[in-house]
Amino acid sequence: MESFKSGFVSIIGSPNVGKSTMMNYIIGQKISIVSHKAQTTRNKIMGVYNGKNYQIVFLDTPGITTPKNKLGEYMLKAAYETLNEVELILYLVDASKGIQEKDEAVIKKLRTAKSPVVAVINKIDTVSMGESDEIEERLRQETFIKCVQRISALNGTGIDNLVKTIEKYLVDGPQYFPSDMITDMPERNICAEMIREKTLILLKDEIPHGIGVDIEKISVRDDGRITDVWAIIYCERESHKGIIIGKGGSMLKKIGTEARHDIEWLMGTQVNLTIHVKVKEGWRNSLSTMRELGYE
Length: 296
Ligand SMILES: Nc1nc2c(ncn2[C@@H]2O[C@H](COP(=O)(O)OP(=O)(O)OP(=O)(O)O)[C@@H](O)[C@H]2O)c(=O)[nH]1
Ligand SMILES: [Mg+2]
Hints:
Layout: E1 5-13, H1 19-27, E2 45-51, E3 54-60, H2 70-80, E4 88-94, H3 101-110, E5 117-122, H4 129-140, E6 145-150, H5 159-168, E7 171-172, H6 187-202, E8 212-220, E9 226-235, H7 238-245, H8 250-267, E10 270-279, H9 287-292
Parallel strand pairs: 1-3, 1-4, 4-5, 5-6, 9-10
Antiparallel strand pairs: 1-7, 2-3, 8-9
Helix pairs in contact: 6-8
The structure holds guanosine-5'-triphosphate (GTP) and magnesium ion.
């Protein structure tokens, strides 16, 4: 009998380098939300990939940056706590940005990690060969980095090779999760994240960083064809609330419509989404509110 291999793989890197995009691409479904804004991911998010006789359990993590509040501290901890408990760390850098100071800080931290590290240069669709070569050269100076791979998480270049490399680090082990389970994130959290993603995409500047989404209730109607979802968007200021709602409710309507499409896909039913906006000043420094919003 052929043995079964499995392993946990943590995805680490600076904000906005494409960690969540890469995990979603490999899993083949959007589990972890993505936006053009840094600090999109706030929690450790699991995504399961099943191959022939093996299973990879990815942990997408928040981008590593200096925390500005308790939420930031929580996010950094969520990323760092994966460093010693996984079979492999994928360290992602953004080809279009190169190795910046913030990346050097991550590299410094990774030198002390117990798990092996493979470096991944992402977004190679945006640069020339020469530019990627330069980044690879810098990464190869680090002896803890086992190898360097180049990918585009947007168009899939290099992903097959990357998965083959990951396979080499799997160990004889159990199938941790049933093959139809792609994440351990509860449905209500996925719904909340989908709404938060739309606020990141549609709202400007700092506003979405102060947003937390709570799902109050999800209920499927008797005929099973419609799901009612009630959500609250928490923001930090009265002025932000006005912007989130928009003129005559136009912005909230946009957020709701776009989120509803994603939630319908998730639920496989029609969705009736009701969103309210409330102010909770300074919630990103309140441990109790953070807990209520799923950051614990
Ligand atoms: N051109 C290009 N853009 C990419 C690629 N991968 C990701 N992006 C874009 O980069 C942005 C950030 O992607 P995310 O996946 O949210 O990045 P992240 O590293 O998870 O970010 P945080 O969660 O904030 O740490 C999004 O606008 C993506 O569409 C890529 O291979 N090529
Ligand atoms: Mg992310």
